[in-house]
Amino acid sequence: MIEELFWIFPMMIVVVGAFVLMLLSQSLSLQKLNLVAVFFLSLSFLNELQRLGSGIVHYSFADIFGKMYIIDDFSTLFDLMFTAGAILTLLINSDYFKSRKYYTGEYFALILFSVFGMMTLAHANELVTAFIALEIASLSIYALVGYHKYNQISSEAMMKYMILGSMTGAFFMLGTALIYGAVGSTNLGDIALYINAPIANDLTLVLTGGTFIMVTILFKIGAVPFHAWIVDVYHGAPFPVTMFMASTFKIAIFAIALRLYLIDFSSVNIIWSEMLQVITVLTLIGGSFLAITQTSIKRMLAGSSIVHSGYMLIALSSIGLGSEMAAPAIMFYLISYFLSAAGAFGILSFIASGSTKVMTYEHFKGFSERRPYLSAMMAIFMLSLSGFPSTIGFLAKFYIFTSAIESGQILLAGLGILTAFISVYYYFKLIAMMYFYPSTQAQRHFPFDFSGILIGVMAMMVILGGVGTSLIPFLPSADGLIEIAKQAIESLQSGV
Amino acid sequence: MNPILSYIIFLPMLLSLLMGTIRVPLHVLRLGAILSSILVFILVLFVGLSFEPEGGMQFIRVLPWIEHYGITYYIGVDALSFVILALIALLMPLLYLYMWKEKRKGYWYNMMLLQTGVTGAVLSLDMILFYLFWETMLLPIFIMIGRYGNGMRQFNAMKIVLMTILGSMTMLFSILYLGYEFYSLNGWWSFALSDLQTLHFNPVTSIWLAGGFLLAFAIKIPLLGFHTWMAPAYGSAPTPTVVILSAIMAKLGVYGLWRFGYGLFEETLSYYAPIIMTLAIIGLLYYAVHAIMEQNLRRMFAYSSGSHLSLIALGIFLLNSYAWSGSLYFIATHALSSAGIFIMIGLLYSRVKSVRIDSLGGIASVAPRFAFFFTFFALSIAGLPGTGGFVAELLIIIGAFKVHVWIGILTATTMLTSMLYIFWMLQRTLFGSTNSSTMTFADLNIREMTMLVPIMLLLLISGIVPSLFFPLFEPQITATLQEVMLTIGGR
């Protein structure tokens, strides 16, 4: 029993942290609460870190819950990203809530709850668990999006997201019910057994259910035509929350998507690949149009995050068409997107902590003269997001497109490369704004602060992930990361 | 496994990053930049001394990079890349000498990064590595034009980047496809050029793949129809960048055509040959006519450069040893003379703050030394006998006549048209009467002469005794040409 608790310690510590934060929320200052939250998350992070790469697959409390809750390399890698994302969100924005009156102590508890939800989502080996986890994560995010409750835009974003999100959440439930109706179980292993049964079962209900679940997943990652909320919600949410959503919550959805469509529906994936292809094409083109027309950086990044979902969808449909490299490619892309998006949003909210303006391209004019280091980092993140070689973003795209070519989706790979070309425009526009225009304010400053260092470390990781060779020992660079991604996927497949 | 080439590639970048992070003062930065370029020059000299013209690829270094996908750090030098390498190594110190009084630090950093980018692109033999350098060398160009340029610099910087990246993207697609095809045939990944050369495709696939590469190179050269970035970019870029653009980057397009076009798609290129030759011949004339009409000196020589590069591209597609030797020789000599003329235009601009022909005149009477060098470089562009350009152009024209008499005649017009715009331009800028802006034109000083004399001497030597240089790349040309002819003939 005690040993079982040890297995779920990383998740447990986050929930415990969330409750502690709720209890302390009135008695401690925001700064201290921030540190407490970071403390709990780091504890969980470190615990997960030493577990990574062990290759063990374990079902937690198997005698009580059945095989509901799985612990493997795959979920560990995701947990690491969630906790890292939350830690970065909290630390980089440690100045943000100082200047905002509406921040209260519950903010930190909500972040921890949503991290817990995401972690459970990555560990869920059963559809109802997955749904509950998804809702825990989502509900916390809804509350976080509307955290600025006296602000109309923020409240509107929250309502929009909550109504649409709940409705698509219902699809997940419906899909689960349909699958349960056919299989008689919601355990992923049982569903896989049912699908791959030697005597062919009637798959109509299962496939319909799987499609409904896919609707929820596509909605959450913001694929076109389920994208209508994404720009407004990203725009309306406070900067730290946008950062958290874009870099962390989006990844969590891919955790369940990969587990479902790599294990559960692996043999029938081909049925969805045509649908996925259409959605991918729409997502890539629609996202590009959305991103290219924005003037606010936050909205541009929101639009471009749709395009990034599109790239990952390319690989998702490649999985169905029998590409071996597609699944590790998605993992690698997630790591790369996590680093670059968290960095870019981190810089945005870091800058925004001093002012309340909407960040448009115009505001970045002459930024390189005001903050040379920060703008160099921003340029690195932009290059990585646009897939420029020598950054991790290039290798991520390289893997995705190679997997698309491997599965014979040559036109889709071509379209991906075309949208990558379009994305060069809106990312380079920001670099142009930062470097090509004289600064309106004359003073330069190099404040020494912790957030800047963190962002700097992330920028270094982006570069290291892009050029780092296997010659550098001890550091998982470009080569090591794809190895980790591969291991994670293998542990996923060995789980069933 | 001699690491000398790695030093040549990465020395400027590492030094600039080091100096950038510790924020050195300007004079240290300047010294560092010049030292690094001289050190690189010495290293290149060292490579040149132990270089064997018949040895094929030399100084090869292969290190694993991303092992899962067989991507290696694979560099080496052969006669062709050595010519461009030597040009870069020679021009960089001279450009730093030109930039001596430049106070904006970013200028220096970007030039150092640019050197790493172009050198790396010339030396890499792994497709992904090549792509990496091919793209990253754009970044300093982007910043240089957009930040330190003039005119509509922001727009023009964006334009050159977008157009070039469009080409790179199609090339990336072809590279990925080649890599995957290699994997599916052999069961292991490799992106090394020598491995990918073993692949064979059906004609349709091959045409598409070659098209991906050709678009990248056509935009870089630029061939007619892909040239809209050229004049604006040359017009707004600061002088050192223009020199790099015309002397090195445009040559890289031709280099890519030769190395990767003929390396990977010998047969398929004969499908594209008529199209490219037509574009090159029309481009040759079209750019020349544009150059005649142009009032802005930078844009004029941009078009002139485009015209001559079309000639080089044409020479490469003519497939005989005259044209090939001529093209390769022209790569070197045109780089020298265009570097010379763009430096002269830069000097002109720094004196009178204008590069428009109608605001100049009578310079020869106030600044004879300037007029001498200006005339020399302008005439060397036009192919003055006695300079290397003449030898090269003559060889290409002979090669063209060997293929078809009309191609020969059309090609020969390049000498005529270039004489036309060069002499007319000289007449309007150097001679005639002085006006208020050219009245006080300062003549060249010692520093400026120091950077021009080596280029001039090299141009003269290459023109008077070309036999000094031909043995360097003759064996490789003959070998490659034979190989290509064998493949095409064997169809």
Q: Strand fraction band of chain B?
A: under 5%
Order of helices and strands of chain B: HHEEHHHHHHHHHHHHHHHHHH
Q: How many domains, in number, for the residues of chain B?
A: 1
Query: What is the oligomeric state here?
Result: heterodimer
Q: What's the N-to-C terminus distance of chain A? A: 24 Å
Overall shape of chain B: it is globular
Low-pLDDT residue intervals, each spanning 5 or more residues of chain B: none
How much helical structure, as a percent, in the residues of chain A? over 70%
The overall pLDDT average of chain A reads: 87
Low-confidence stretches of chain A: none
Number of helical regions of chain A:
21
Q: What's the story with the biggest beta sheet of chain B?
A: 2 strands, antiparallel
Briefly summarize what is shown.
The complex is a heterodimer of chains A (about 500) and B (about 500). Chain A has helices at about 1-5, 10-25, 30-50, 60-65, 75-90, 105-125, 125-145, 150-185, 190-195, 205-220, 230-235, 240-265, 270-290, 295-320, 325-350, 365-370, 370-385, 390-405, 410-435, 450-465, 480-495, and strands at about 60, 70.
Task: Give a verbal description of the structure.
Chain A is an all-alpha fold. Chain A has one domain. Chain A has helices at residues 2-7, 9-24, 30-49, 62-65, 73-92, 106-123, 127-145, 152-183, 188-195, 204-221, 230-236, 239-264, 269-292, 297-320, 326-352, 367-370, 372-386, 392-406, 410-436, 450-467, 478-494; strands spanning 58-59, 70-71. In chain A, strands 1-2 form a two-stranded antiparallel ribbon. The longest helix of chain A has 32 residues, at 152-183. Chain B is 76% helix and 3% strand. In chain B, strands 1-2 form a two-stranded antiparallel ribbon. In chain B, a hairpin with a 4-residue loop joins strand 1 (58-66) and strand 2 (71-77). The longest helix of chain B has 34 residues, at 153-186. The mean pLDDT of chain B is 89. Classes of the chains: A mainly alpha (496), B mainly alpha (491). At the A-B interface, helix 18, helix 19 and helix 21 of A face strand 1, helix 5, helix 6 and helix 7 of B.
